[in-house]
Every structure is written in structure tokens, then in C-alpha cells.
Fold these 2 entries.
Entry 1:
Amino acid sequence: MAVITLFGVAVVVFCLLRVVPGDPVAMMVGPAASAADIAALRAHYGLDGPLPLQFLTWLKAALVGDFGTSITRHQSVLSILGAYLPATIELAFSALLVAILLGGATAVVATLLRQHRTSAAIDALNGVFLALPDFIWALILVLAFGVAVPLLPLTGRIDPSIDVPFATNFLLMESIITGRFAVAGNIAAHMAMPTLALALPLAAVIARVLRQALNEAMVQDYVLLARIKGMSELRLILHEALRNAVGPTLALTGVQATFLIGGTVVVERIFAYPGIGNLAIEAVINRDFPLIQGLVLMFGLIFILINIAVDLTVVALNPRLRHV
Amino acid sequence: MGAISRRQFVAVGAGGVIASMLMPGSRVFAAGDTLTIAFNVDLPSWDPTVGASAVNPTIQAIYRTVFDQYIGQKPNLALEQGLLTDWGWNKDRSQVWMDVRKGVVWHDGSPMTPEDVVWSLERAGKPDSGNPIQSLWSTVGKFKIDGNRITGQVLSFDPTYFKWMAFLTGYVLPKTYYEKVGAQGFERKPIGTGPYMVDEYQANSFLRLRANPNYWRGKPPFGTVVFKFVTDATSRVAEVESGSSDVTLDIPYEEYDRLRKHPGFAGEATPISDIGMIFITNVPPFLDKNVRLAACHAVDKDAIIKRLLRGYGTRIDTLEAPQYEAYDPTIKVTHDPKLAAKLLKASGFSRENPVKLKIQTTRGFKPKDYEMIQAIVGMWRNVGIDADIEVYEIAKHFELRMAHKLAPAAFYNWGNAIGDPSTSTGFAMFSKSPHSAWKTADVDKMIGPLWGEPDEKKRIAGYKAVDRYIAEQGYVLPLLQYVQPVIYKKSLRVTPNVSGALQPVLIHKA
């Protein structure tokens, strides 16, 4: 099924790119270019043949792992994706982690205080977080921690003055694993603002859904029984209600995580973070067909993998689903 | 190494963030000897002769920092010695000659030779090279080397051949090294003869350069130069305001004015070789001369510059900016709404019965582009032109222009960093150019002979005559010359560059 989906994505993207306005050759011809120059460039980039032939040529190569050469970067698409994807994975994973922690904590606190006036304040604040999209958070954070109180680095992934070799493109993980904690700290500082920008709206979604589920769970018989046994409210929430409430939240988080990957496009741009989101914008602006095709296929693959992972986790957490 | 516990992991994360904020010692380079530029575009490729980045005028700032051009260019656009110390044609224009500078070495220490120059020229002229202006480089061939002198046979005379040696794709690349590492190897580790050597390059993030100790012009002003690729203008402002970068460019004029008032910053706002214009296509209703001229006379360019661009811009009435060779200040297209209304009336149009047309524009591609077109549409409406605005991406503009399918009016910006009229009026108005929108025989008849005109004075005079004729006919609507704002720390001194290339060698400690 996943293969069919990816094939469908490949066909749609290939056709769309050729239908929508924007010719990569028109983008690169200089003022002195002649008609012959233009024809030569079309041939050079393999854009001169009939569309079905172009697609078959691309598909044949893609099946053996060759996604072509980027028109603007003159490097293989696969190697470019390999260089950029780890940055986005680290960013998205951090954002997801922060969102789960923040959203989860907010939901638990709000449930704990559900009969208190503070609960309404938490709901209102959560509503604000929910209403502001990631790019607005990004701009707020830039102004707050980049300009007003310049605590955090504004752009990039690592300070350009740090001259440390890396064996992989997972800079944060590699720095932690190899014990270069000052470098890891520098990378984490660079990731802090984009991570928060991505995490805050998602945290609000998680908080709202989880709180709703916890509220429903808290009036169930098994919670009542535990309460009669004298269990504290916090223990009731964490040990009894949370496990049952986490299912729908997890499913929704999975869906939202795919949006989170999409959100990296704008956030990475604002923070000049070198991930696939930033790369995607460049590729689209320059009409870099091979790179766009590779990026969309990879986005598709990521979405499929996230959905599979969520399905498996939900089943693992809910024994009833294992026998469906 | 032992396993990391959860507690240790969290501690490392938090501690690391704090450490990085508090420990300036993690910097490797002395801040005083490092220049950090928050740059407005990314660098997609290291080959300055191939692909879209090769014809991107802004990126030339980086290419000129790592590579050298055949011929250099001063900040006022005048040519100067580069890797060629002298050059020219023979008397009958059948041959070119070039003298190659001695004693220049590549960043890997190997000598730069005339063979490198010939190889670069021949490579640029090959049809399969991917060079976007290959046809220009192919006008000279059959090169011969005699000591440090190169001679070549002129296959098709182009008077701008040497000027292009200081412009797009005019770079000398290392023959032996390139052939050894190949195209992709060169992308990974490029070398040139320029003032700075590539130390670390992370695409979409930053480029770190170290001074070339063997640079033929002498020691560069900074030991280390960092280009941070910050494409978002708000983030670039924040970069300099927070002190993370020393210099930035192309920020909104409002921000430029605000930061200039700050005691820690200085600024330069220089007119550069980039103009804003409206292409007029030879389709109805612009086949009517009265309508064309009315459209031109109705526009108050001074008001646009003053009110929308805060005064940052220079009004132009031809496609030549004041710094260009064929600029003629006597060619004027006045703002005269009464005349515009009279011209329209002669063709049967009025405010009550306006002529209708479409105008295309980008939005946010250039400063206030959409707002400018809105203002122009308002000015047109006052005289009897009813224009619908269509917003498009720049990619669509290029495609439509190449297919000669632009709307009757289309906003665009046009760069010409060598200031030669062939690169502005020539390519923008000659019908056989893929970049022209107005395609008629009368203009071709005037421009055609100028392509190969060997007498430079006659050629420039010819272009001035074309510009006057085009203005009289209303074949294009030139608007303004852009001003590039550069903001920097007061501890620095920046020499403005009319070409728009913010080169580190033009930045010094104050």
C-alpha cells in the first residue's frame, strides 16, 4: 500500500511540476542568452524530451536509488537529502518531545485543578497558544529572545566559529554521544527557538485533547473505585486515567506530527535553519524539478512512516485493539 | 563510553544550552578578526559558470571572494586588472589578446597558468557546458598560448566580450584540480585564486572563509569571514541588532532608517545597477501609441520613490541608470497627467470610458513592488486607464517572458552590473532576445547593427539614439534605479559597490 501511495505521489508531483507555471531554464538564462543557449540548457538538464519519456527515465533511475541531479546545486538529490534530512529530524523530534511534555503537563495540571478557577485561566491561555500559528511564534521568539533579551542565537544550526568535524549530519545526537557537550549545548541553543515555535501550537492541541480525554476518564467507575480506596488525585490521573486517555491523544499527535514536519518549511526559513523545509522553499523558487520530486517523495515517505508508527503505538498501548 | 542516563541526558541538554550562552570560549576565532555578514541569499552551487546561481547578481559577492574574474571591476563599475593584466582586439577585430598575471597561485598552492584561463574560456563556450550565456563565450575560440600571452580567433565579433569577463560567469577556474575532482568534487571542495579560501560550507546555513595568505592583491582585511545565509529580512535585521552579525544588506528601508539612528550602527544606501521597470508588450491596447505614451506620462515616479520607498531610489526615464555608459540625462519622460488624458482622448478613451488592460507584478520579490503597481494603477485610473493587477511568482514571469506571453504591462527588475547598454536596452528591447517584451522591426532596425559595432563611441551613441526613440514611442516604462541599504557596526567601514555585490574586501575596520 505504501509503495502504491508513493508511486501515486511521484506521478502527481511529476505532472504538477510540468503543468504549473515556472520553467527552470527560463530562471537561469542570463541576459545575453540566445535561443541556442536555451535549447542547449534544456538538453543539458534533460528537459527537452517528451514528458512520458522524461517520467520513465526518472522513474527507472529512482527505482535504483538515483533521484537525479539537482539543477541548482549540481549534486545528486539523494546526497542533498541525506545532508538536510537529519537537521529536520532533530528539530521535529525535539519539537515533538517538547510539545508532548508541555501539552501533557498542562493537561494534567488543568485536570488536577478542574474544579478550581485557575482551570479557566489555563483553558484561556491554551486557547491563545492554539490560535497562534508556528510562524507567529517564530517572530515573537525572534523579537523576545533574539533582539529584546538576546539570550539565544537567532539563525543557523551551529555557531560558524565552531570548527569541529562531524561524522554524520545528526549534529546534536553525535555531539551528545561523543561527549562534546559544549558543542551539543551550542546546537541545542540554536535549536531552542525553532523548536519552541513548532512545539507551542502542537502542545496546545495535545493539552486540549488530553484534558478532554482525562476529564472523561476521571468519571469512569474504575477511577471512582480507586478514589474510594484513597488514592490521591495526582496518582489517580497519572496511574489510572492517563493510560486510558492517552490513546486518542496519541492518534491525534501522530496526525499533528505530520503537520509539524510541514511547519518546518516556514520556521526553518525564519531561523535560517538548514533543514529540508528551507531546502524545499529554495527548490520551489528555483523550479529545481529533480530536487522537488525527491523532497516530495521523502515527505510522503515520512508521513507514511509516522502513520505506521502511530498505529503500532496505539495498538501497543490499547490491548483491545490487538484482537480486532 | 558508558551509557547516558535519562537524568544525565537532560542535564547535558540544559547545561549545554547555558554553557553555550555563557562560554564565549567556545569560539575558535578572535571576534576582532572575524567579519560576519548576514547575507540575503543562499549559495546553491560553487560553480560560478553554470546554472541559475551563475547569473544571480547578488551571489557574485561570494564568487568574487573565492574566485577571481578574468577582468576586475571597481566599485563604480569601471573595469580594472584582474587575472588579466591587459587585453584587447587587433586592428581588424579578427583576434583578441590577453596577458595573464604572473605569480598567482590557487588555494591549493599550485600556480595559476594561462592554460587555466584558456580552459575556463573554452569550457564556458561549449554548448553542453550548462553555461547560461555560452553563446557569448563561443564568439572567440582557437586560443593559442605564448608565454603569458593568449591570443584567440574572433569567430563572431561582440564588442562586450571583455566586459563580460568582469560580469556573470566570467571566472577563471582551476583546470587541473577541476579535472581531477570532477564537478561534484568541486562542489564539495572548491578552490580559486580569490582573497578568501573556503574553510567550511554548510548550505542554507553558513559559509566560513579564511584569508588567502598568498592573495596577489595583498592581505585581505579580515582573517575570517562568515556569510550567514539569512533569507528572511526580519531575521537579518535581528541578526545585526542582536550583535550576532556585523553587516547586513537589503533590509526594509524603514528598518534601515531606524537602525541608522542607533548609535552603534552606520549605513550606506547606494544606487545600484538594478532598475525597476514595466515591460510593455506589443499587444492591444498598447499597439496604440497614444495609450502607451499616456501610460508613461501618467506615472509620477518621484512620488512613488518619495512615498513608498522613503526617498531611496533614483528616477529613470530610459533603461540606462546614471552610472551606465549610455545614460543620457536629456531624455525625459515627464509626469503629465493632463497630457496623458489628452492622448487617451485622442484614441477615444476617458475616465468614464477607460481603456482596459492587465498588469502583472510580483509581490515581495522587490521592495514595495506590489504597492508600486497599486499606486501606478491608481495614477492610470485618474487619466482613463483601468488596469487589473495579476500577482505572479517570478518563475512565471520568466516563463511568460521567454514565451512572449506577458500581459500588456508587467513589472520586473533588470540588473546590469557592467553598465553596458547592450545588457540593458539591447537584450530588453531586441525582438530576438528571449528577454524582450516589445518586439517590433523598427527597434530591431536600430539595435541590430549595434551588436557588432566596432566603433565604441558610435555604438554608445547608437544606443542613446535607441533609448530616445524608445522613450518617444513609449515602448517601455522605466521607473527607478534601486538603492541598496547596507547596515553595519560603527567599528567598520564599508565601501559601497554599485554592482550590488557586498564583497568582504570592500569592508574594513574603521
Entry 2:
Amino acid sequence: MIEIHTRRMQPRSTHLHSTHLWCLTAFATVAISIGCADRKPASRTEAVPKQPQVTDTRPKERTRPSGLLPKFREVGPAIGIDFKRYDDMQGKHRIMESNGGGVGLIDYDRDGQLDVFYTDGCRMPLRESTPERSSRLYRQSSHDQFKDITSIAGLHSTNYCYGCAVGDIDSDGFDDLYVTGFGMNHLWHNNGDGTFSDITTTANTQSDVWSSSAAFADINRDGHLDLYVTNYVKSSVNDPELCPDTQSPDGFVTCSPTVFRAEDDDLFVADGSGAFMNITQAAGVTGLDGKGLGVVICDVNQDGWPDIYVANDGMPNFLYINQGGDVSGALAQESGQARVPQFIDEANFYGAAVNQQGTAEASMGVAHGDIDADGWIDLLVTHFYTETNTLYRNLAGEGFLDETPASGLGAASRLQLGFGTEFFDFDNDGSLDLFVANGHVDDLQWQPTHPPYGMTPQFFRNDGYGRFEDVSEWSGDYFRKPWIGRGVATGDIDSDGDIDLMISHQRTRSAVLRNDTASSQSSVLLRLVGTGSNRSAINARIEATLDDRRVVREIVGGGSYQSASDQRLHIGLGDAELIDELKIHWPSGGSDHHKHIAPGSYLIREGTQTPWTMNKIKLNLE
Amino acid sequence: MPRPRTLLSVAIATAVFATVASTVLFWPQQSNLPEGVLRQQYERYADRWRVENRKEPERTDVLAALADSFFLDGQLNEALACYEEIPSDHPVYGPSARLEQAKVLIQLNHAGEAERNIRTFITLIDSGQQYTAEQAAQALDLLRFLLEVELRFEERQEILRVMHKLEVNGTFDSLAYCFPTALRWNGQQAVLWLENFWKEDSSNLWLRIALGRYRTGQGRLVEAQALLEECCLELPESRWAHAALAACYYEKGDWKNVGDTLGRLPTRGRSEPWLLLRMRGHFHNHAGEYDEAAKCFELAIQEDPANAESLRGVAMAYAGLGQPEERREALRKAGVVARIQNRLGWIQAKEGDLEPMHEIIDLCEEIELREQALIMAKLALKLEPENQDVRSIVERLAAANPEKSENLASHSRTSND
């Protein structure tokens, strides 16, 4: 901002060099010839007001859209989930306080009902023990009733946690947990008896940097789950950088991530013995300037090899295309059975690094799904205030095209700051709709031109062809209030055939939104179990034929922001009565075919001919 | 001895005479003062000037002093009234009055009038009137600010060029000069300035076009479209208005109206607004007219070599033309520009931090932005004159880039539609 000074008007001697005079003369000639549009003189007014006085000319009311609208109801406290994240906000606006946490859906006891895991912060400096704070595991003991069983499960972690990933790393049938944090990550092995053990060190998955999201996937297709961890920025563990601001009531504002150095991500490959090897460099995961916040592992080009998409904050995103195969040499020999795939970052050339304006945006969360029913996985990345969330449409595996404007998702997101996000079918019509959790990273209410801190979340209804309509204000009370939204996970919590929402907040209790949409259409819920493939069947892809429609879904690693959604595949049947044909492409390379699948919940093991109807098995931990 | 009654009569008569005389003598002068200026104020400043300069002040001497004082005290309307009464051709105060008037007008959010006064100042000094280097720098900076708020980047580039030549540019001026469209333009503060300007002069076409563009950048597309369609109706040949409207439709994904809007203009000329070039390029790409798209984006890149949008656009065109190597090269450059952008944000957040500046120099060299690299290196040297490494870089780059080729835009921009 310029400073306008006034001083006495007595002229001083001219000191400009003759060259400068020439420049000014030349400038004057140019200046006179340009910018001479007709302007009417302004009327004289009072002195400029201190606060902006701008008339809001936006339409005050929108017409209620036609058709079935979503209906989500906040039920957290009623069902026993009352988690409120602790971020140790003490007025210093440390950058690590602003990222919030994640939420994971996991059926840790294999009773057929989803349980919920929230990551929590702690008091800083980080080495201080804060035993009263810990990430939380809520077990669903019966329909819609949850109980905090963190202590029973032994999942007590007291560091500053951020994200989580769910996957069965040892193929014992019980999903394990990887929890990221500031300066400390944890790999929690599910013992199968209702408890977890911290095997971080023995499994060689430790990290002492700032980790954000994580994703399990079998990147080398050896049947074992591997692990990708996004790391954010280099920051001091015990003495975080502060950004003073004399105008802030606290004296500080949150530092921008632009002034921090990027932290490289980590790629761990399972060696088959229960441990992992860090193969980041060897695998070609060498992207520069990555400040990773979100990650999704899916097969974007359908060549059978999972690819890794990383959302980087303010920097170009990465799209590591899996080249398949493995590298020979010392590392391969040393790793024994571990195959080391090769990756090449093709984000720039695939068109998924930046938006169509060539700008690297904030990039927090990643939603994935075939939003235009063309059979290819598309991606949506959430961004900062005054940026749009960006929709990358998959061009049949040859690249991505930023189709944000045409999708209807652009303008609606300009004045929001998005974090966790997921595509899911809210009404079982077969098309993927979109939820975005919003909330700013700093409380700037004291600024005259401040953006809001809490923001309303958004829900967009898909017309089936990849065009979205904002139906947020009709989606339930939750959507009309501002929140500081962060992690998002989706899944059928109440086993009623539709998808519910879990949202991790900052400063307020996290939300559990039950989907109460009055849809007359049914769904099929598939739990896939690998045998030749990784047991979690991550990166299995299904193609379902319903009447004249084809629905493609993939179980992905990661997704959203620092969160883990239900890994069961949900297929809305729309007007169809059943799935005529279901083709499953397993990560092992094999495929199975099934026919005539009626609405319901099924378990399908790789290589079997008949889907099993899911029975609920209760594990009594009382 | 006169009687008391006589004395009283004389006193009354004297008082009446004095009142009448002062009214006759002084009334015209009171009514000649600028609005809001009291006679006593005028007299006080006249007396002060008289004592300081040991001669009788002229009216403009007093008005100039009054104006300064009012400005310092925040009495903007009074200051404005005084400055307005100082003629531009006054040999002593003319140019200064226009410049100071411009400052007051900006404070009062009268952007159009402020700009006119700045340009008048420039005209005056060009005709030989006296001025100081500081005044020239201030005038350029004020004009730069107004053009920036109004998103008139092409004209701003000319101003920055002159500031650069006169070496009155600051750090951010250099960043804007090297990377005119890489810095964020739709920030809250800029929007607020423009909205306040527009409130005071809602008929100003430049302000309306800029507001339309800001509304587009805020996602308020209904308002943007209404504003800009009105501008296009009023000035059917305005390339700036049509460019902004096309951008609004582009944001909506409404290709039909993008095409219709562009179709109302004459075919692409030699000199076009940068936004219009990009919109034309995007539309041609969408229509599969890759040859035309490539031409538009190549022109845009000539004007603004560090515009990632144009680089990505031309890459798409090259793909359509079956030129994979050219495509790859354009995308490579676009990717590096994105990393430069991040470091620009770093410098803005932490002014004086030289690390990102050094990295920008390296990144510029990586994609042959040699002139930008040299300017950034000189900036780094200005901030760190004892750094021999930086000095070596400057010398190396200067040897490879003679001063006369320091010309980031090949055309003089005009906005006469």
C-alpha cells in the first residue's frame, strides 16, 4: 500500500539527471496518450470512512431447487460421539494449530459396523506429556450407539496428531491404523482382540517431521499394503516460528506456509515380514517443493498400477504415475522380497499440477470419483479463500482437464476455504455428489477486510454428467451454520444403505451427520476381500452395469484430508432394481464377474463366484 | 468638555462607521475564499508567510500553505478546495498543487479525478515546470497504485518501466514489473479500494470494468455479468469491457457467450489487452482452432512471458497441432512459473528475505527469463550490496543481457478503444 505524505509546497531544486528528465519526458508522452478514457468528474464528499461501506448486491434468496434434496441431521451427541479436538490455541497463532485433524472409519472389531477414530492435538511444546489428550476410538456397540474405548483398545497417543489411514497391513483380517503427527507418527497394529499395539519402530515407519495425510495401497502389487505419507513443511518441533502482527489483538497472525521450506514425502514399501522400507528416493518420488496436505492413491490411467496424487499447499501438485515393474540393483537385493516400483511425476504434463490459469493453489483435500460416468476417476482439490476448488476431469487416462467453470463448482467456492472433501452418492441415484468442509485457517475478525473464520460447509448435487448445483442451504441445519471444518470421512454408519458424513472440526465438537434423505432408490454396498490381492482390496476397481448405465468405482488409498473413509464400495442403483453385471478388477490383475446383485450389503472374496450377504458379528468387549 | 451625550453619539457613530467600512472593505474578500476556509485562518497564514518570507504574500502563497496544513490535519475537503484554486500554470505551485490534489482525491476515493491530476502534473513537468525527483517518484507511484487497483496491467507496466529506469522502484515494483500477472490480483484490500472508488464515481467506465472483474474473481457472477454487459452496451467497441465480460462467461463455463462476446469485436489486432488475448486463445482452443489459439497465446507470452495461463494455453494449442515437443516445453515453463509464483508470495510475506529472491533468479534462468533474472539479481544486490556472489551473478547476467534489450513488452500499450 502506498504512503501518501504531505509536506510544505515550496519547491526544492531539481536534482534529476538529464537522463531522468528524458525518461520523464518520454513517459509523459506515453502517459498522455494512454488511459484517456472519458471520465466524468466526481462529486465532492466527506472524508473516507474507516470501515468499508459496500452494499451487498447479491441476491438475498435463492429459489429452492427441484428434485430430491439431501437431508443430513447432526446426531453425534445422541449416539455417543462428543469429540472435540484440542489444538492448544493459546493466542500465538502457530501454524501447526491451524491444520486441524482427521477422522477415520474403521470396523476394527469386524462386527460389520463402522467404528470412528478421531485424531487429537496436545499441549505444546510437543515433548510435554498431555495424558488427558489422546486420539479417540469410538466403537459402535449397537445401531447408532457409540462408546469411547480408546483406553481399552490401547490406542493412547499423546503427541500432536493430524491424519490417519486405515488398512490391513498384515492381511490378518483386522484393519490397522497409521496416524500422522507433528514430529511423530504411529503405526497401530490391530491385535484382533479389541486392542492395538504400537509397532511404529519395529515396522520402520517412524518419522520425525510434520506429517499430514497418509494412504495405504499396494503400489507394487505384491499383495502387501504399502504406505505413502505426505509431509508438510519444515518447522521447529519445540520452538515454532511465530509471525508477529502489531494490529492483531493477540499480537500474532498465522504464518503463511509460503515462508516455510517444503518437507519431502515418504514412501514405504512392505517387505512381506511385517516391516517396511523407505523407498522414497529409489522409487522416484522426488518431487521438489511439495508441501503435502492431501493424498489419494488410485489408478488414474487404468493400467493396473496404482498412481499417487498429492495435493501440495501453494505448490504444484504431484501425480506420480506408476511405471510398474521393479528396479534391480542393490536396493532390490537388499529388500529381499520387496519390489520397488518406479514413479514419474507427470502432474504438469497430465494437467493436474495447477489450475487452468497455471496457478498452484492452496490444495488441501482431494476427492476422487467418476463424476461424469465415463468410467474414469476424476479428482477435485480444495483450495483457499478467493481461489476456486478445482475439478480435474480425467481424459480417458491421457491426462486431466481443469473443468471447474463448466462443472458449476468454481464460483461457489471462491469465498470459501475448503479442506476435507468427498464425492459420494447421497440419494442412491448412481451419480456422485460432493461435500466440502470449509473453514479458514486463522481468526482475522479484527481486520477491516477480514474473511470469515467459521464457514458454512457445502453440498453439491450432481446432475449425472459432472455438472453440480449448490444445494447446501436445503441440506439441513448443519449447513446453515459456520464451522471450522477439516477432515471428512464418508460411510454407511447406520447400515441403512445410504452414506453418512463424519466431519472433524476445530474449536467445536466434531460432527456426525446421518443421511436422512428420503430416497426411494436402493443401493448395493460391497466389501471386497483380497486373497491374491491385498486383503483390504485397496485399488480394486468395479464396473457395474445397471440397465443402460455403467458405474465405475475404485477402493482408493487415502483421499479427502487427513482422513479415511469407509472402504466399502457404495453403488446407488437409481431406477434399476439390481446390478445386472458386476465386474471386479482385483489389484492382483485378476478379475471376477457376478450377475444379478440385488440391493443389500455383500462381502465378495477374490476368486469366489458368489457374493456373501453381510452378517453382523458382534465382539463383546465389555 | 463635551457632554456625555455627545460623546456617546460620537462613539456610536464611530462604531457604525467602522462596521460599515469593514463590511464594505472585507466582505468581497471573505466571499472569495475557498469553501470552508475562514477569514481568520487566511489572515493567520498570511501573517505567518509574511514574517517568514519578509514580503507581502500573494493569494496563492497563502492558499498553498493553508492547503498543506488542512491536509496534515485531515481536513480533506478544505485542502481540496484550496488546491483547486491554485492554477496549474502557476510557476511556483502549479505542479505541486496538482500532485497534492491527487493525493487528497485518493483519500476521498475520487480515483478518476486523482488520475487526471497526476497526468496534469506530468504534463506540466514535461513542459518545463519545476518539480523534484521525490515528486516525480510520488506521481509515478500514485499512478501505479491507481492502475493496479483498476486492473489496468498493461498501462501499469509502462509506469513500472519508467520507475525502473528512474530507479525509483521498490521491491514490489520490481516483482510486479518482472511478473506483472503472477501476483494475486483479487485480494481483499484491492477489492476494498476499488469498491470505495466505485461508490464515489459509479459511472466511471474503468471502475465499472474493474469491479466486474473483481466480482468475477469473487464468484459473484450474476453481478459481474450485469455490470459488464452494461459496459459493453455503452461502449460496444471497448476491448477491455468485452475481455472482462468474456472472462466472466469463461468462469461460468459458458462457451457460447464467450464466443458471442468475442465475436462482437473486430478481429484480433496487433495490440490487444492481455486478458482479451488469453480469452481469445481459450476460446480458440475450445473450438479446436488450435492455430489461432497458438497465435493468441504466443502474442500474450510476448507481452507477459511469465504468464502461466498463456503458457498452459499455448501448450494445449500445440497438443492440438500435433507439436508434442513444443507442448512439453511450454508446460515445463509453466511449471517453473508456478514455483516462481510461490516464491513471490514468500517475498511479499517476508520482505527482505533474500533466499526466495535467489531462487527466483535461478528459476528465471531455468526458463530463459534472463531479463527478469537480471532485474531480480540487481534487486538482490541493492538489498545486499556486500554479497559478492550476488554481484557476480549481476555481472554475468548483465554481460549476457545488454541494457538496451531490457524491454519486457514489445509494444507501447494504449487503452484508447
